[in-house]
């Protein structure tokens, strides 16, 4: 079991954070952006970056080759649907995708939008962590967080129409 402190200060004990979120035990801030039979998408509000979406499987698996045929098809459909919404609603030109199998959570893909300010941290994978930390530590004003919440609402509306 792991102790996880939520953004509202509450502490919960869960085996797997992804299971807790995809099963609805923990409601992510901003809510569910999109949910299908096999996948669940939400913004990680720990990092106030507009359109930063986490797409998690509902099953507790770790690796790509554990996906069933139905899940594989659903995954690529959902991923590209969210990508399209990021473009049409938020004007996001490029996205980095990050997914690691040695996670303490379960199968989930980060969809990290690229904004102009991020290029001061370089390009490609080495810039991802510094970018996220910069957002969390330096770009976390009330206004910015409100913008992120507004972006979540716009994406949710676009993806569920
Ligand atoms: Zn899990």
UniProtKB/TrEMBL annotation:
Which InterPro entries does the record match to this protein?
Answer: HIT-like_sf
> Mind listing the GO molecular function terms for this protein?
hydrolase activity
- Taxonomic superkingdom: Bacteria
Sorted alphabetically, the keyword list is: Hydrolase
Q: Protein name, please?
A: Diadenosine tetraphosphate hydrolase
Organism annotation: Metabacillus litoralis
């Amino acid at each position: 079991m792991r102790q996880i402190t939520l953004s509202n200060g509450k502490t919960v004990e869960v085996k797997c954070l992804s299971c807790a979120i995809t099963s609805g035990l923990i409601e992510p801030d901003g809510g569910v952006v999109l949910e299908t039979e096999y996948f669940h998408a939400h913004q990680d509000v720990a990092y106030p970056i507009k359109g930063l979406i986490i797409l998690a499987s509902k099953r507790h698996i770790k690796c790509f080759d554990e996906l069933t045929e139905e899940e594989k098809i659903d995954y690529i459909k959902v991923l590209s649907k969210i990508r399209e919404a990021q473009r049409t609603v938020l004007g996001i030109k490029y996205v980095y995708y990050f997914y690691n199998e040695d996670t303490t959570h379960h199968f989930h893909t980060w969809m990290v939008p690229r904004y102009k300010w991020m290029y001061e941290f370089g390009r490609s994978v080495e810039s991802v962590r510094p970018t996220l930390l910069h957002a969390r530590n330096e770009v976390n004003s009330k206004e910015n967080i409100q913008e992120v919440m507004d972006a979540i609402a716009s994406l949710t509306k676009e993806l569920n129409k």
